[in-house]
Amino acid sequence: MTRTEPTLFGLVDRFENRKTDTVTFKGKMGLPIHRWYRLTPSFSPMLALDIAEHFELGGSDYVLDPFSGVGTVPLCLKYKGIPSCSIELNPYLHFVSAVKTKTFTDLCTLSRCFDSFIQLISEEAKGLTDEKRATDYLAAHAAFIPPIHKPERWWSRPNLAQLVAIRRTMLGLEDTGGHIDLLRLGILSILVPVSNAKHNHVSLTFAHEPLAAVDIVGLLRQKLDELIDDLDCMRDRPCSDVTVYAGNSKAVDRVLPRSPKVSAVITSPPYPNRFSYARETRPHLFFFEFIENAKSVGCLETEAIGGTWGKATSVLMHGVEPVNDIVGGLLAPFTANVNGNGQLMANYVMKYFNNIFEHAEGISKVCRKHAKLAYVIGNSKFYDHPLPSDEILASIFEYFGFSLDGISKMRRRQSKSGLYEAVVFMSR
Ligand SMILES: C[S@@+](CC[C@H](N)C(=O)[O-])C[C@H]1O[C@@H](n2cnc3c(N)ncnc32)[C@H](O)[C@@H]1O
Prior knowledge:
Blueprint (H helix, E strand, L loop, with lengths): L44 H10 L8 E3 L6 H7 L5 E5 L2 H11 L5 H18 L6 H10 L10 H4 L2 H15 L7 H12 L6 E2 L6 E2 L9 H19 L7 E5 L5 H4 L6 E6 L9 H4 L1 H6 L6 H10 L7 H7 L7 H14 L4 H24 E12 L1 E3 L2 E3 L1 H11 L3 E12 L4 E9 L1
Parallel strand pairs: 1-2, 1-6, 2-5, 6-7
Antiparallel strand pairs: 3-4, 7-11, 8-9, 10-11
Helix pairs in contact: 1-2, 4-7, 4-9, 5-7, 8-9, 13-14, 15-16, 15-17, 16-17
This protein binds S-adenosylmethionine (SAM).
S-adenosylmethionine (SAM) binds next to strand 2.
């Protein structure tokens, strides 16, 4: 591929200049099941469905999303009758994808399980919105405080005490048909709304004023009702098989079983923009011990593509060489510009595309002949130097035998910044 090819942009018009809710997480907030958990950098179900339709996918296809996030792609395809699988590295996001795509039919038992939990927790958390009682409760049950660094920074004392009551109560429950997982998902989805963190930016930030006491049991009740309503509304829809694998998409071929071969990939890898999925999901990772300790969070971040936080940054300080001349050559114009100002940034970008190279190699091993690929990715800027991530990604895949069918620029990310999100369409 040469970057000046006249056909590079605009081949697939339907994907150009899309409205925000057809590209971003905003498009899922009113949709059953999709709305259960907000991940700001997740994409819109409308986008996944439009791509599936554009690829003319059906029941004989097998679709892979190697960067599952909260499971948008497999969940959409499940109710379209298109078999699919996905892979996710972050154990908490893997859990969200797996629970959202699971089929629950016995809604009566589920409802009873939720009711009895609410009854138990109402007793346990009684009076804990009071500061003094919350303080005493926390002192008495310190062993149940989630092992996150500085929990009192995340939650005001009454809110933390109620969450501790929930953790204690959960320990005594017996599972019936995976219903505990749904309960856990309901609890996890309210952790940030009752915290001192705010969602007004793509990354979580702490509000100036901590959030006052909230009736967490009441909020949880509402959330559990929402889960049941959504499952009820989808219960008679025909659906296809979904498998969500826990694993690392740097080596897709080692995660997936040998067959069947993938006929399409619809995905959005992390963008090279230093966003940290491990950092954003810390409250959830620690609440139900999806992860052991801070050290494990650092390891998760280092294994992630585009990981940048804590230990992942120290790794970059030692310098990063291109895995080969292909990656080195593609990044040379960019690193030449950035090196002077920020060796660390140049190393970050090099590690990112070294990982994308490994990923593309794995994808080439699991895809059928004529497979179709759609990669949703945003470009970046470092020290005012643009990084054409979409074009570099396409060139890497080209090395592994995929041809570029078009890059559709869907949406500007900040007006006048030159940043945008695009879909890179490729095929074998
Ligand atoms: C842009 S998000 C995908 C969002 C997804 N399309 C959705 O709608 O929820 C990228 C995801 O890739 C995951 N990820 C990062 N590195 C990974 C790796 N090496 N293997 C598998 N998943 C990885 C992140 O944890 C994150 O969930």
